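Supplementary Text 2. Reproducibility record for the structural model of the 310-residue chain.

All settings were left at their defaults, and a single model was retained for analysis rather than an ensemble. We include the record here because the model underlies the residue-level annotations in Supplementary Table 4.
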Amino acid sequence: MLLAGCVKKISQGLCKVRCFGLFSGRSLFLVKSSFFSNHADIRTFVGLTYYHTTKGSLQYPGNANTFSEETEDESHSDREHDQQDQEDEAIKIKILNTALLFVQEHGWTRRALAAGAEQLGLPGVAHGLFPKGGVELINHFYTSSNEELAAQLEVETSEARESNVKLHTDIFLINSLTMRLRMIEPYLDNWPQALAIMSLPQNVPTAFSNLLDLVDIIWFYAGDKSVDFNWYTKRLSLAAVYKATELCFLQDSSSDYVDTWEFLNRRIDDIQYFGKTFKQAQQTQELLAEVTGSGLIVLQNILGLNRLGR
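Retained model, structure tokens:
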């Protein structure tokens, strides 16, 4: 009979279930022993029985068979597999970072990835590590740029706290968006291609997720603590401002893109204005509701309607 089990890890770390096996007609959880300390005490409750693990040896009560060799071999194999995954990921990051150097020449394409791999002394066919091709290069640029912006804002806000300097929200938003847009500048000629690729239906969720991550980072460091519907409106509004300014940035031929920064300033002023107007309208609506409610109560008292319910 197959019985369900619940594994609870008492030592440090998380308990990672590797697979299911069958032993003596019962369901057996094989637990990754590398997550446990030498004297881990893991109990898997299966009905009224449990498995007891001591120094990597997994035993079933009343059975002399142990699985220490199997769990140790599997643990060693898992460690090698995890290490290989980390090495592969590190190589992919290096290729992506180097491929950015060739975007101006090859665009956001597999050729840029192949050139990046060859620059590192790897065969050009290493671009096969990226089945989605240029999409993965664009996504890497977007996510790494967001991370870079977050690191810069962390330093800026930390210095402001230490100096007891209050950051003005509108100025902070403008500076944050300017920093992020400046990161596109080296790839400005090829950025329309990136926008076109990310606007394809299969890439829209990733593009939207990256955009929301960007505005969430900015509002977080701006000190936004809203927990109501304003949390959404602030982020969607800032996302709209960023995309509009981004399009303006692509067409700007003024010196140091001064027209873009003026456009951005006006859009942030619009956010602040509409935010205040919305808040005032909401307060007015609440006030009208209170006045109307009070008026109805007075009218009920005059007509003696409230006595009917007593």
